[in-house]
Amino acid sequence: MIYEVLRAGNPVLKQVSEPVEKIDRRIRRLLDDMHATMLLYNGIGLAAPQIGKNIRAIVIELDEKRYDLINPKILKREGKSVDTEGCLSVPDLFGEVERSEKVEVEFLDRYGKKKKIWTEGLLARCVQHEIDHLDGQLFIDIAQSVHRGEEK
Ligand code: NI
What is the pTM of this model? Predict the structure, then answer.
C-alpha cells in the first residue's frame, strides 16, 4: 500500500523512534510499502516516522540499489561535506547541510541479519538524513541555509 507522507509540523516527526524488536513478515511488508511510497513520490530515502510509525526503519534507493536499514547506528565518521538536501516531509524547501563525508553504519537487514557497511557521498548523506528522522530531526533544523526551489 501507499502511505501518506507526513509533513513538517506533525508531532510524529519530532519524536525519537523505538528500535524494531521483531523482524518478521510484517516489518518486511512495511519496508516494501515504504519503498513503494518513496518511489511514487520520487524520493531516494524514507524513514518510518514519515509514514506515521515511530520505529527505527529506513529505506533508501540509489543507483538502482535498494537498502533496507533496521535499527541503523553510525559507528564511524570521516570528513565533512556541505550539499543541498530536500525531504518528502518538507516539500518545496531545500537547504545546505553539513554532513560527514563517509560513515560506517551497522544495521539489521530485512531478515534480521547484522550488517556493517561504509558509505560515502550521496549514500552517506542519505543515511545520515534518514537516521536524523529516527531521532526526530529534520534537515531544516540543522541546515546552514534554506531556500525554495532546487537552485541555490
Ligand atoms: Ni527526509
Answer: 0.96
